[in-house]
Design goal:
3 domains; D-Maltodextrin-Binding Protein, domain 2; 10 helices; globular; five-stranded mixed beta sheet; alpha/beta; 308 residues; 33% helix; Double Stranded RNA Binding Domain; 13 strands
Length: 308
């Protein structure tokens, strides 16, 4: 009897392929009747590498072509880093699964230096994230934050070639690629609050495709799903894209979600922060309340000024 074929749309970077294979192996282990195939797709974000994403459409460019593959039937699911997924999905698609969370924090990576405290003044630090840039400058205003894009290995190569004194990368990506040894320091939430969804893999599929949803549903982590829903609700209520200088992180503590979010000016001189707790079933409402508090503190003007 032939096996049921399920197709995963994936970008073709090493990290994206790792993520897709991770889900492939989990699904084939759970469902021996399945044969899971990868459909490699080059996205707009992979083609536009010399321009900051916020200037050309945001991180949605990482998923646009993958979502088109879902809508056309070319693929059944797409695997994403949740921090790259736009806050509003195309009609007909849903994030059905959010996996167990890898370390959600950011890593300091350098050949010569062990931490930001050891960097010389005016040191060049590479990142493509406005969220990271703002939080770095809040603590170390003398740093030169330089634009850096490309896949993880491309960024590490630029560091190794001496273009930067240090770069900032997600811990989760380094761990998944077996590059833990490159991490010199992991930032705490107080030092650098993560992006919404950081460290979590999401599986997107068609809303109407109940058969596929039944195959993938066992990979969902309900607590992680609720935490990320809270984080994303903050960004959605602020009308802030994935690339905005907004940080949001929720964790499950003492039977409740604890959510913390920040809105920052690009130079790090303004930091607005709000926190709240909620029952796991009130995750999105928790995120909306936090966003409303940030807006009351002046978040709209801070965000608008970032794009003037």
């Amino acid at each position: 009897m032939s096996k049921k074929i399920l197709k995963i749309a994936t970008r073709q970077s090493p990290l994206a392929i790792w993520q897709a294979n991770h889900i492939k192996q989990a699904l084939e282990s759970l469902h021996p009747e399945l044969s899971v195939e990868l459909v490699g797709i080059t996205t707009s974000a992979d083609q536009i590498i010399n321009v900051p994403l916020y200037k050309v459409g945001g991180k949605g460019l990482f998923v646009k072509e993958l979502e088109e593959a879902l809508l056309s039937g070319k693929a059944d699911i797409a695997v994403h880093s949740m921090k790259d997924v736009p806050m509003i999905l195309p009609e007909g698609l849903m994030i059905a699964v959010m996996s167990a969370r890898e370390n959600p924090f950011d890593a300091f990576v350098s050949e010569k230096y062990n931490s930001l405290d050891n960097l010389p003044q005016q040191a060049r630090v590479g990142t493509s994230s406005l969220r990271r840039q703002s939080q770095l400058l809040a603590r170390y205003p003398a740093l030169h934050i330089e634009f850096l894009r490309g896949n993880v290995n491309t960024r590490l190569n630029k560091l190794d070639e001496g273009e930067f004194s240090a770069i900032i990368l997600a811990v989760s990506g380094l761990i998944r690629l077996g590059l833990n040894h490159r991490i010199k320091k992991i930032f705490s939430a107080n030092e650098m609050l993560p992006a919404a969804g950081q460290g979590v893999l999401g599986i997107e599929c068609r809303e109407e495709d109940i058969e596929t949803q039944n195959y993938i549903k066992l990979l969902d982590n309900a607590i992680v799903h609720a935490c990320v829903n809270a984080e994303r609700a903050v960004c959605r209520a602020l009308n802030a894209g994935c690339q905005a200088p907004v940080a949001a992180y929720a964790e499950y503590l003492k039977d409740q979600i604890h959510l913390c979010a920040r809105v920052l000016s690009l130079d790090g001189k303004i930091i607005l922060q709000s926190e709240n707790n909620a029952d796991i079933f009130q995750a999105e409402q928790c995120g909306i309340k936090v966003a409303e508090d940030l807006l009351a503190k002046g978040a709209r003007k801070v965000l608008d000024d970032c794009y003037v």
